[in-house]
Amino acid sequence: MAKESFDRITHDLFADEVRPGRPKSNPHCRQVQLKMNKKKQVLRDKQKGLKRIELKVDSELFEKLNQLSKDQEITRGELIKQLLHEQLI
């Protein structure tokens, strides 16, 4: 039986053939891609007029925020933003 390169029915003939995976679409390694994406995100936020706030809370408050955001089906960040906005304005 002749082996045809386009024949994919007889698997045993192609058991040792290495099939290429997904082609590399970006010349940079994953770590560099992540840094570039983060930088782009920061620039987009800056153009939208958004500022970053870091907040440390105890675990009890953290769990309450998680539960409340889950109940309202919004992210925790959106919930905190909404609570601060209601309190200050």
TrEMBL record:
Keywords: DNA-binding. GO terms for molecular function: DNA binding. Residues 51-88 form the Ribbon-helix-helix protein CopG domain. CDD domains: RHH_CopG_NikR-like. The keyword DNA-binding applies. Transmembrane segments: none annotated. The keyword DNA-binding applies. InterPro entries: CopG. It holds the Pfam family RHH_1. GO terms for biological process: regulation of DNA-templated transcription. NCBIfam families: PRK11675.1. This is CopG domain protein DNA-binding domain protein.
